[in-house]
Amino acid sequence: MSDSCALPEFDLPQVGDIARRLFGLTGPIKKLDGERDLNYLIGEPGRRHVFKIANERESPALLECQHQVFQRLMETRAFPRVATARASLNGNSIEILRSNSGTEHACRALAFIEGRLLADIAKPCPELLTDLGLTLARLDRALESFTHPALERPLLWRMDNALEVLESFTPLLASDRQREIVEYFASRYRARVLPRRQALRRAVIHNDANRANVLVNEAGSEVLSVIDFGDMIESWLVLEPVIAATYVMLDQAEPLPLAAAVLRGYQRELPLRAAEIELAFDFICMRLCTSVCINAHQSALEPANEYLNVDVKPAWELLVYLRDIDPADARGLLFPV
Fold it and tell me: Is residue 167 located within the same domain as residue 270?
């Protein structure tokens, strides 16, 4: 059930030549991190673009769907800044290229948004995290009527399939203790979430507002944009703020108040319903379980890809911490009256 595959095989000189020939991009080039795709920052400050080469399984239709979302976010002014697709020299937003091994890859160039990653702020203030929640709610409002056939796709990160993912990959975890923790949360998910899931709203969501996908201003006081829509799907609406709330808790001594700040901001713009509030903590725990299990799977396939291991240790530390918190107590901390 893997949607993992090796990164595209292009060296730096090849990438520079491809970007110049297809999109007219010139200037300094720097390789960026990526889980499934190759990403490069090209150009001089103020005129830089992110040149992206997708893995061979990435559908051009899904990339075009992302471009439609960017356009809608610009029209609705959901973010202060939105990445825009640069037209190629042929007038296309997406070009197809072939690797030395014969695989085909979609490539495109997106305007680079200047700013700091939320991941680079060790102790984000509650006001910034509340603004993150507001930003995600505005994103979801902008996409309320949006649909696209490319979003009907299998994805390991789809919460609808979380139990299947855990069943497949829990055996790959490093210890019995890790497996016990995941199995505990899976059992609680079956008991609490599955009977209530029909009460949850569904929508097109970004689905991955982690700390490396959120850009903020230099002062660390305002969210500028949310980037990387590669995991965008149609799923439960509550997952949008929940996923962001999950990742802001990593590496924090008092994590739950930070998650509460994200949820508070989301609630101001797009209030959650009773069932969504009741299950938010369960989804936080399940996202962490899914993350560590998918990491174990991907690391087995790509042991040299260091990007995959960025959040593994803090994710386990957070799971151990949350293991001892009762869902009713967590609800009071996440949604204080």
Answer: yes
d(CA 48, CA 45): 6
Dist CA 318 CA 322 (whole Å) = 6
Cβ atoms < 10 Å from Cβ of 17: 11
Low pLDDT (below 70) residues in the chain: 1-6, 307-308
To which residue do tokens 């356009």 refer?
Answer: 71
> Quick one: 141 and 210 in the same domain?
yes
In a domain, 6, yes or no: no
Number of neighbouring beta carbons within 10 Å of residue 222 = 16
Rounded to whole angstroms, the maximal C-alpha distance in the chain is 59
CA angle 118, 242, 259 (to 5 degrees): 60
Rg, Å, the chain Cα set: 20
Distance CA 7, CA 117 (A): 23
CA distances from 280 to 107, 243, 244 (A): 37, 10, 12
Closest CA to 35 of 316, 312, 305, 315: 305
Query: What is the separation of C-alpha 336 from the centre of its chain, rounded to a whole number of angstroms?
Result: 26
Does residue 131 share a domain with residue 61? no
In a domain, 1, yes or no: no
User: Which conformational region is residue 77 in: left (phi greater than 0), alpha (psi within -120 to 50 degrees), or beta?
Assistant: left
Residue that is last in its domain, among 90, 114, 138: 114
Q: What pLDDT is attached to residue 3?
A: 57
Does the predicted TM-score (pTM) go above 0.90?
yes
- How far apart CA 158 and CA 176 sit, in angstroms, is 26
